[in-house]
Amino acid sequence: MNMVTPKFGVGASALRKEDRKLVMGEGSFTDDVRAEAELHGFVVRSAHAAARFQFRDLGAARAADGVHLVLTAQDLTHLGPVTCQVALKQPDGTRHALKHIPLLCDGQVRHVGDAVAFIVADTLSQAQEAAELIDIDWQIEAAHADLATALDEGRPLVWPDLGTNQAFLYRVGDSEATAEAFAAADHVTSIDFLNNRLVSNYMETRACLAQWDAEAEKFTLTVGSQGVHGIRKTLATDVFCMDLEDFRVKTGDVGGGFGTKAFNYREYPLSLEAARRLGRPVKWVADRTEHFLADAHGRDNKVSASLALNSDGRILGLKIDLLANMGGYLSQFAPFIPVFGGSMATGVYDIRNLDFKLRGVYTHTTPVDAYRGAGRPEAAFLIERLIDAAARETGLPVAELRRRNFIRPEQFPYRTPGGRTYDVGEFDGHMTRALDKADAAGFSGRAAEAGLHGKVRGLGTAVYIEACAFAGSEPAKLTLDADGGVTLYIGTQTNGQGHATAYSQFVADRIGIDFDRIRVRQGDTADLAEGGGTGGSRSIPLGGVSVSAAAEELSDKMKKLAADELEASAADIELVDGSARIVGTDRFVSYADIARAARSEADRTGKADVVQDEATYPNGTHVCEVEIDPETGAVEIVRYTIVDDFGVTVNPVLLLGQIHGGVVQGIGQCLTEGVIYSEGGQLLTASFMDYAVPRADTVPFFDFETRNVPSTTNVMGIKGAGEAATIGSCPAVANALIDALDRARGVRHIEMPASPQRIWEALNS
After folding, report:
1. Which of 761, 754, 765 is nearest to 458 (CA)?
2. Amino acid 1: pLDDT
3. What's residue 342's pLDDT?
4. What is the CATH T-level fold of the domain 33-141+201-294, as seen in this structure?
5. Do domains 19-27+472-608 and 298-469+614-764 have the same CATH topology?
6. Region 569-580 average pLDDT
7. What's the average model confidence in pLDDT over 377-401?
8. Range 81-98 average pLDDT
9. CATH match for 298-469+614-764 among 3.40.50.300, 3.10.20.70, 3.20.20.60, 3.30.365.10
């Protein structure tokens, strides 16, 4: 095929084409969208974690200035709830009960922030003032928010009809074989820890604009999301029981998602129903406190795990007992998140025996669901902390213990006891490179130097693997437009990752065209019949390969059209700089001429839906070096080194941004971030005054490179990178902290977030 390699094809460091619009203030986020005569919605939320209630008086609120509508559960009996989509098969063969999220609570609340009424008024302030007029009789009940004791006898039940706070039981592995492995072990290492609960804290809070076309009897929802098609499906089929065609869902610019904007939330159907009743658009925008109270939280596991080893340091078996907090209801994908973690529990190691026991637990807290990594960060933290602990107890150098147990390249494809099939990997290669780049050999000298200044240093390593870009596909359509530009239609959804830039690189590889002439259309169900959305690092590995294939099909059609115009063979045509020319001549036609020559839309359209049969498995090594001030407990990350295997790098600049952001979120979980509830279920960290996100002085400079081994399950060798850094960073920082604390005082455990107070107490207790 004759083709000139473009300047900004796959592998080039193309700068983000989206940024000019955003830095000039020309973005269009949900709250930027205005509709004529729009009204404003406000959710009345419970201040109690567990209570029965009834409305004494709604009349004053309904009669308040500017108020058009006050909805309660009694007004919504014709609508369904916000549904959980996952019912796990338990060991006894049954499927567990699904406790869905009601649009509005009907006489019972189950966490602080639970929704009891929806008010629509001319202005938000009027709706808020009307909320103060609603007279509610609260019958406060005993609540329980502590995951560790939620299954203890006598604890308050979130769902009394179940007779227990256990939401489900799930097991994977071979318990008998694992027990035999432990019986034969020369050494067993055990650890217990909490994987702390987190809040996403994207820059743009959730928002929506709901509209109803009474004549057509159709809804339009503008919403910040991670995929319009998934939200349309749950709204249509689960809540309104209408046809998909009755809903148009649109998403513009999105200020961060991290998994948490993938779901349908109760405010969306509430706004839609209000718009239908009032015949006017209804907008709802969350404030930051509502984000803390009502958006799905992440993580929150209690873990007990043991590792069995023989005298040579070879791992014989892994046993895990995990409690996963579900909150007061089952969110959309919630049960699957810890299951997913269990499937990755053995990490990069050749562990043949696994006994993974998972119990989902209800508490009087905000529901928990997918947050960046969704189960894989929890799995990597578990196994990497366990490996470090085993090395300390056995006296083996931690790098040597890892090397002895890595899955070796000749063992691939490798089927894990958790049910995943890894295709390729060279784990020792990137770990060795990362340790060399981090100058691990010189650490003892740096630690001694720090000691002279009263500081304590620690060095921590984490070698991770994740599963992403799962089996499936993402269809793409490309059209050659009348002006000679190209438009891509695809059902993923950028949340700031730079999709327009990355997808344009795939197009530029096949069709020689200026970057600015490539238009990327996402976020509108009217443009594309289906789409998988963005999550699990799927957009580029799945969407990118379909874009590339669609561009190749369009390229072939354009060459045939150009060949007819130029009276030449299609094989002699090359596409360069917006024109099709005969190779070695000055004879050409423009892309606009080709578009005019097309006899039908099909002649100037390329489509592809490349199906992938297995997930991809990015992996890598993070090495963190910390310095602690024992007098204050303050931590400084002084060096941070990453060597990753992403198969193929599409754009080094975009990749670096993904890595930086992901590492910072992992650092945040380890050092600063953590949701705290009182025993009675009050959220004590409901603002940035109490919930500490990382800041510039928390974050080090990063030393990052790739050591790529192309995937064999992805046709272009791409593995995905959006969540990887969050997965590798948290255990690396934790291992560095433990290394420092162990050197200083023999401390081998600290819970996250490892705040200065916790570190000081560990060093001085």
Report:
1. 754
2. 35
3. 97
4. Aldehyde Oxidoreductase; domain 3 (3.90.1170)
5. yes
6. 95
7. 98
8. 98
9. 3.30.365.10
